[in-house]
Amino acid sequence: MEIKRLTGGLSVSEQILPADLKAIKDAGFRAIICNRPDGEGVDQPTFEEISKVAQKAGIETSYLPIVSGKVLDEDAGAFDAALTELPGPVLAYCRTGTRSATLWSLSQAGQRSTADILAATKAAGYDMGGVVRRIVNGGKTPTDTGDASFEVVIVGAGAGGIAVAASLKARKPGLEVAIIDPADVHYYQPGWTMGGGGIFEPQETSRTMGSLIPKGVHWVKSAVAAFEPKNNAVILDGCRVVKYKRLIVCPGLKLDWHKVEGLVETLGQNGVTSNYRYDLAPYTWELVSGMKGGRAIFTQPPMPIKCAGAPQKAMYLSGDAWHRRGVLKNIDIQFNNAGGALFGVKDYVPALMEYVKKYDAKLNFFHNLVAVDGPARKAWFDVSKPDTPVERVEMDFDMMHVCPPQTAPNFIRVSPLADAAGWVEVDQATLRHKTYDNIWSLGDVMNAPNAKTTAAARIQAPVVAENVVADMRGGSPVAQYNGYGSCPLTVERGKIVLAEFGYGGTLLPSFPTAIIDGTKPTRAAWFLKEKMLPPVYWKGMLKGREWMVKPEKVTVS
């Protein structure tokens, strides 16, 4: 007998025997629900046999038999009622535990999010893919059969989603494409660092979503609840179903602010800010502009994160502002990085270290932010140095710029598309899913080992578009992604170290060294970041104009 926990009040298991009741009692269970009809197997004890022994042990019992594969809507209601009436914790069982897990999943629909239900059952080893539509539909069997259908469905209307839609329409203008995204506003997120440095105004980094959806592309303004890749279906909130011939998944990632205790309550006040939020970048600049002395902490969580250089960009621009105002000598800059290196590609580190020295910043590696008390101006970090026990340290601050922990969105992590770490599993060259050959992914959500940046998505979009069109024509992938990513490291106002690299840290500069030497701070790179890249984004990338991003062809060995 293997007991699998779903919640603090409910666990499920395979068929139990009378002899198991002592161990069940010792484990703390106060009630049992049997979901297996008597007589299903020749070696199966009857419910009455189980019940007699359970009652002697002081365990209450309930008999709710379910025929395998036939869990009715009313059965889920009866299961929920039993959980309410019985003393907990409860153990429910059937032949394998699947029926019990299914009953719980349906009974919780409407009470918990679909992602939370799927995460709990997945962790226990049960696949609820067969009833996901019912879960999304509040635990009831859907009756609506009016599903929408498109040749290509794109999940996510961020940089990757709109760019790949535009690239597809440029190649096949008559293609029926739909983008699914509930957001009203689209953000140019690379501009937020500049906002936090007092260079860009917030409104320069946002546009209405409707103004950016490519002409001829259908916009399904809804959130995704789940995927049914075996049925070529995307399930939306409200249990609407969108069918596809080919699917492209690029919803970005999730900023997990709640993972740091006390952070959500103090963001935007008490000196705690983040350039990772549109509305907080101006507060960063407000704090920097007003600071005359004290301690400023800049944090970086464990990888992966979007734009791995952004946490230190905030530090450099802040240090530069304090240097220009003549107050830098009064400010204690601390860079607390959960990782063990300043930057993942060593070629750029010497130039960055010059600025670390210029701003007299202290680098604290293996320091991961775990809690913050804004009113008290205190933060706690778990220090996890190699071969050393984890130590929790407390630090006071006057200002703290936080980069939040980041994960794949919940509906991705619990889906059949995800790898063990929760990211969409793709071939790192073709960006095609490793299991479902009519699915592709790009942007921050997929698991290729590249930097999660807008510049990466700009290269990935035409690669995916080329390969989707090739698949439509019955061919093999024709384009491959080399892992390109770019991180313009704003080391001071007017100069940038333009890091450009691919898989394995290979340097992939876009310009000759005579124009921009990416390993050194240059004004040319600053001009590119401040003046050139925003219009390239709005007027090029999102319009299907693939400037300087011609896909690399697949090489045949």
Describe the structure.
With 557 residues, the protein is α/β, with parallel strands linked by helices. The protein has three domains: 3-136, Protein tyrosine phosphatase superfamily (Protein-Tyrosine Phosphatase, Chain A); 149-252 and 408-481, FAD/NAD(P)-binding domain (3-Layer(bba) Sandwich); 257-405, FAD/NAD(P)-binding domain. 28% of the residues lie in helices and 23% in strands. It contains 15 helices and 29 strands. The strands form eight sheets. Strands 6, 7, 10, 11, 12, 13 and 24 form a seven-stranded mixed beta sheet that branches. The protein has a five-stranded mixed beta sheet with strand order 1-2-5-3-4, sandwiched between helices. A five-stranded parallel beta sheet has the order 15-22-16-17-18, covered by helices on one side. A hairpin with a 7-residue loop joins β20 (378-383) and β21 (391-396). α3 packs across α4 (98-108) and α7 (159-171) runs parallel beside α14 (454-472). The radius of gyration is 27 Å and the shape is globular. The relative contact order is 0.10.
Write the layout of secondary structure elements.
Elements (H helix, E strand, L loop, with lengths): L2 E3 L4 E4 L7 H6 L4 E4 L12 H10 L3 E4 L9 H13 L4 E4 L4 H11 L5 H10 L8 H5 L11 E8 L3 H13 L5 E4 L4 E3 L3 H6 L9 E3 L9 E3 L3 E5 L4 E4 L4 E9 L4 E2 L7 H4 L5 E2 L7 H10 L3 E7 L9 H16 L5 E7 L11 H10 L3 E4 L1 E7 L4 E6 L7 E6 L2 E3 L4 E2 L2 H4 L25 E3 L12 H19 L6 E2 L4 E8 L2 E7 L19 E2 H18 L11 E2 L4
Helix pairs in contact: 3-4, 7-14
